[in-house]
Amino acid sequence: MKVAPDGTSVVTEGITWSISPYDEYAIELALEHKDTAADTVVSVISVGGPRTKDALRQALAMGCDDATLVTGDGADALGPLGIANALKSAVDDLKPDLVLCGKQASDDDQGFVGPALAEALGWPHVAHVTRLDVRPGPASPVPGEPQSVEIWKETEGGHEVWKASGPAVLTVQKSAKDPRYPSLPGIMKAKKKEIPERPVAGVDDPVRIEIVKLEPPPGRGGGKIFKDGDTKAHAAELAKLLRDEAKVL
Amino acid sequence: MIPPTQGFGVAVLALVAVLGFGAFAYRAWKLYRYLRLGWNEDRTQQLGKRLKDELVIYLLQRKLLKRPYYVRGLAHAFIFWGFIVITLGTTDLLLSGLVGLRMPGAESALFVWAVDIFAALVLAAIILALARRLFFKPPRMHIALDGYIILGLIATLMVSLLIFENAGLAAGYLAIHQATPPLAQLVPLAWGGAAGAVFAAAWWVHVVTVLGFAAYLPQSKHLHIVTTLPNVFFRSQRPRGALRFVDKIEEQETFGAATLRDLSWKQHLDGYTCTECGRCSDNCPALATGKPLDPQKIVLDLRDLLLKEGDLLLKDGAATGTPPAHQLASKPEELWACTTCAACVEQCPVTIEHIDKIVDMRRYLVMQEAAAPPEAQRAMTNIERAGNPWGEAASTRGDWAQGLGVPTLAEKPDAEYLYFVGCAASFDRRNQRVAQALAKILQAAGTSFAILATEETCNGDPARRMGNEYLWQLQAQQNIDTFGRYTVRKIIASCPHCFNTIANEYPQLGGRYEVVHALQLVQDLIADRRITLGAGPVESVAYHDPCYLGRHNGIYEDPRAVLDAIDGVRRMEIEPHHRERGFCCGAGGGRMWMEEKVGQRVNHRRVEQILAAGDAKGERPAKVASGCPFCLIMLDEGVGAKGIQEELKPVDVLELVAARLQSEGVMRSNSSSA
Fold first, then answer.
1. Of A130, A102, A100, A101, which Cα lies nearest the Cα of A21?
2. How far does B483 lie from chain A, in Å, by closest CA?
3. pLDDT at residue B328, as a whole number
């Protein structure tokens, strides 16, 4: 990773773009669910330019049923609230039972879009999801209410198990298996699939975050190893260095 | 001899002949139809070479006469040559018995002597073979009733032949112009008045046994005596290291061997031709270290699947049957254990192509089912995204050369050679030192060369070996396009896998270059005195043959010549596992990126072999040198795991050369004047 000359962004030349790893886990979790409940429809959506369309094709190749892209001028430059609102417009059309997102993007690590999307939709949000379990039982009599799905959320030293009474947004930490490698028939089919586009124009983008400065972490110096002398002498030497050089005492 | 088929004897003989040959033809026709279920691979290229192989491998039995099977191979060769002669004799018998005609030359002394001598030799060999199976069974010989039946039938044929000759002589049935069978005379002619009856009996036993044998032949592995003829003729004439190309891959509907129809007719013929000798299994590093892979089993399982499902597939054109990778008894673990070292292919006397079958089934698992081991999938994803299986940042690919004055092709587009560094030497710390050593050598020699640095991407070899033909084609095409932009003609590779795929496989996509492995070039530089090597300490260095340099590409001598040119180096061979019998380090076939969960690690076994070879000579080597980055990594891990990294140091031959370069002229900038 190299900081660009303007000091506020990263050099993107020569970078190979790929789906953010947590988003891959989200796709995989959805597909694992589809493996057990074959009538599940997995739609994948995103916001951005042509590069994003390639990412959607990758998701289709993995086994997603359909893809939608919110695109247009400025799609790559939306702020986080704008992205959430753009996604909301696609979700409104598709009317899913669950929305899964990666818990954070691997480039900016903000972790914002998932919860923001939930807020925009007015839906509850469960974070750090690692597992979805379909519970057997009678199908819900209320139309639109999802089948009984248990949502496992990872916590310190354990799990919480949640149930959603209506549609919800989940931000995903991990899936049971590694994100699946697409089969060649999958890749070929995905190449031919149509990806409908929705316009990004008119999406509300009220807040922009401006990066003021971007710099790499300071280089690490070498460590010091005390070899000669006994423990008492080492301790005295260490205390002296901590006070005079590292200035932490 | 005058045959005892007067009167209705001819009719009986004719009937038996019809039954015998008829049974043969019926079964053979069925086998042929099964074989034609396979797709129509073109194996008619290079007819001249094919004829030569037929002569050398089939007729002269060349591949049987390999250590450590030399004596057994010779025994078989005599059985084979004997059988040719005796078959002529049998034809003569049947002709004379049925229509009273003799084969031209059948009465000559030469022919009669040949038949007798070979009959005796064959009988002796059969007795030895029987004794071996009964009393000295080799550990991996697949012994079945079939083998005993065949040996018994052949023994019966030889004994009955000698008896009817002997009795015939006693009864005076020798025709006037016929030479006297020599051996038959050795035993006293003591049949008395029964000579005639004994002659007739033995003659009939002989002929009926031959015809019974003909009927039995297509039910047994002895069919190889018929199928080896075409199997050798139609063997692959691709370079051994080159896998089969899949043309128009994006238009295929299925990938890899999804059904028996996706194996070619030649692959099915391989199954018919396996003699169950076990030489492939004997030399397989995976089997030797306890993995579930047995190359012989792979071949026989495919044959058995064809015999089991052939009728179903013939009846119903749309039926697909069991995917070969999930066949009768095999599981994918067997396929993933293969390092593609080609020991099996090297040893097989009847030119069966084991690796192609394993890779075709891997192609199905990877491309059709996306069912590769997870670590293998990660390596493939890394190749796609970062251009190297380690997933290291592509932008750092040229960093190993920092400060060495090595130009990139962009800086020096008229360089004579492209040094294709490869992923290992670019990113692996240990192997970066090997690339640096080669750069130093080339600069000292004044060789005009350049590297691609960040314009280089993985040659695709690991992906192809793992069965991801599609990814290999993408990677290869990328490199070929880059080479084209710079009109690259000559390429140096320090990695045998890079060397192999660029030299032998890139032509499948239209990329043709003069490719040389670094050690071949260095050998030339030494011979031409473009570099001089100074004196140095005496040390014992074992040479480890990398599979993709040795068995796959026949490069055994150049690396050894380089070692021998280094003053003080005492080259040690890792006997008996050296040259064509070299033992794999375990990293080939994409296995570098897969875990070994069963048995002993292949590289640990190799280190043990090196130590044992040293002990046998009374001196363990101080170093083990090879010419491959994978071998270096695996040997490093092996000596480290055994805690002997100070006693046995793995190195690359290039490092030994670079350390002895005479100091003037080192590290000067690339000069284009020779």
1. A102
2. 19
3. 60
Give the pLDDT of residue A9. Answer: 84
CB B663 within 8 A of CB B636: no
pLDDT tens per residue, range B283-306: 999 999 999 999 999 999 999 999
| Full-model pTM | 0.89
CATH for B536-659 is 3.40.50
Residue B232 pLDDT grade (very low, low, confident, very high; cuts 50, 70, 90)? very high
Q: Contact B269/B230 with Cβ under 8 angstroms?
A: yes
Which chain A residues are closer than 8 Å to B389 by Cβ?
none
Give the whole-angstrom CA distance, residue A53 versus residue A36: 28
On whether the CB atoms of residues B519 and B555 are closer than 8 A, the answer is yes
Residue B668 is predicted with a pLDDT of 40
Average pLDDT estimate for A199-213: 88
Interface of B with A (CB under 8 A): 249-250, 253-255, 366-370, 372, 374, 377-378, 380-381, 385-387, 394-395, 454, 470
- The number of C-beta contacts closer than 8 angstroms across A and B is 36
CATH assignment of B393-526? 3.40.50
| pLDDT for position B672 | 43
Which chain B residues are Cβ-neighbours of A19 within 8 angstroms?
A: none
Q: What is the DSSP letter of B528?
A: T
Q: At what angle do helices B9-35 and B195-216 cross, to 10 degrees?
A: 20
Domains in chain A, CATH or no CATH each: 21-199 (3.40.50.620)
In Å, how far is B368's CA from the nearest CA of chain A?
5
CA-closest candidate to residue A100, choices A34, A171, A45? A171
Q: Which CATH class is domain B9-233?
A: mainly alpha
Same CATH fold, B536-659 and B393-526? yes
CA dihedral B627, B629, B631, B636 (to 10 degrees): 120
Q: Cα-Cα-Cα-Cα dihedral of A26, A32, A33, A37, to 10°?
A: 150
Residue B621, SS3 per DSSP: coil
- Closest-CA distance, B297 to chain A, in angstroms, reads 28
Nearest Cα to Cα of residue B302 among B364, B382, B375, B386: B364
* Total number of residues shown for chain B: 674
Nearest residue on chain A to B254, judged by CA atoms? A185
Q: Is the pLDDT of residue A114 over 50?
A: yes
CB B63 within 8 A of CB B351: yes
pLDDT band at A217 (very low <50, low <70, confident <90, very high): confident
Q: At what angle do helices B469-485 and B374-386 cross, to 10 degrees?
A: 20
A149 or B385, greater pLDDT: B385
pLDDT digits (tens, 9 = 90+) for B407-457: 999 999 999 999 999 999 999 999 999 999 999 999 999 999 999 999 999
C-alpha dist (Å) from residue B581 to B237, B414, B601: 22, 41, 19
Cis status, amide bond into B650, omega within 30 of 0: no
Chain B residues in contact with A187 (beta carbon < 8 A) = 470
| Chain A CA closest to residue B250 | A188
* pLDDT-based confidence at residue A139 (cuts at 50, 70, 90): low
Domain boundaries, chain B: 9-233, 249-368, 393-526, 536-659
SS percent in chain A: helix, strand, coil, step 5: 30, 20, 50
The alpha carbon of residue A8 is apart from the nearest alpha carbon of chain B, in Å, by 21
Burial of B495 (0-12, 13-18, 19+ CB in 10 A): buried
**Model confidence band, residue B673 (pLDDT cutoffs 50, 70, 90):** very low
Contact assignment for B370 to A186 by CB distance below 8 Å: yes
The architecture (CATH level 2) of B249-368 comes to: Orthogonal Bundle (1.10)
From the list B249, B370, B395, which residue is nearest A182 (CB)? B370
Residues contacting A230, CB < 8 A, separation 6+: none
